[in-house]
Amino acid sequence: MRESLEDGWREIIDGYLDRILDAGFDGVYLDIIDAYEFFGLEGEMPERDDAAIEMLRLVGHIAARARAERPGFLVFPQNGPGILDVLTNIGRALYLQTVDGIGAEDSFYFGDDDEDNPLTVQSDAVRLLREFRDAGRLVLAVDYLTEGAKVADFCVRARAEGFVPTVTVRALDRMPAACPSG
């Protein structure tokens, strides 16, 4: 029998969440939310037809538990906007109500290089990020760029979508570059 959140992971997750709350953090930025894709019907390990629902439950648990102790606690998944296309309409609405926003990497300049990939707009991702934006959720767009023209273009594109642009390097070993004004 497969373990569910209630069967074992809750204790681990709650332990980490307690430490986060005790340290005084106001929110979490949840990486690898898109792991449901790996285990879902079209993933490399397709044995979990409920992987997206389980991810919704996990994010919902984290949000509810943290907000019970600290109202206004922020929950931001990183990547994985495609969960909206996998969930039912009810699940989709619940996910959008649960999260405060989303961080999205490489939505405009996508490729195999660590930085300065060519402009390759991820149309499906941008479409889904618009749904977050339209639901009143903050969209943090992060592209890994160093070339001035690409930085400026990305910032214009992200702002035009109503996203908050951030330009940095994938190693995250320096402060992000400021987007040009305007």
Defining traits:
single chain; 182 residues; alpha/beta; 2 domains; 3-stranded parallel beta sheet; two-stranded parallel ribbon; 7 helices; 42% helix; 14% strand
Can you offer a commentary on this structure?
The chain starts with 8 loop residues before the first helix and ends in a 14-residue tail after the last strand. 42% of the residues lie in helices and 14% in strands. The chain is built from seven helices and five strands, in the order αβααβααβαβαβ. A three-stranded parallel beta sheet has the order 3-4-5, with helices on one face. It folds into two domains: 1-73, no CATH class; 100-182, no CATH class. The protein is an alpha/beta fold and 182 residues long. It is globular and about 50 Å long.
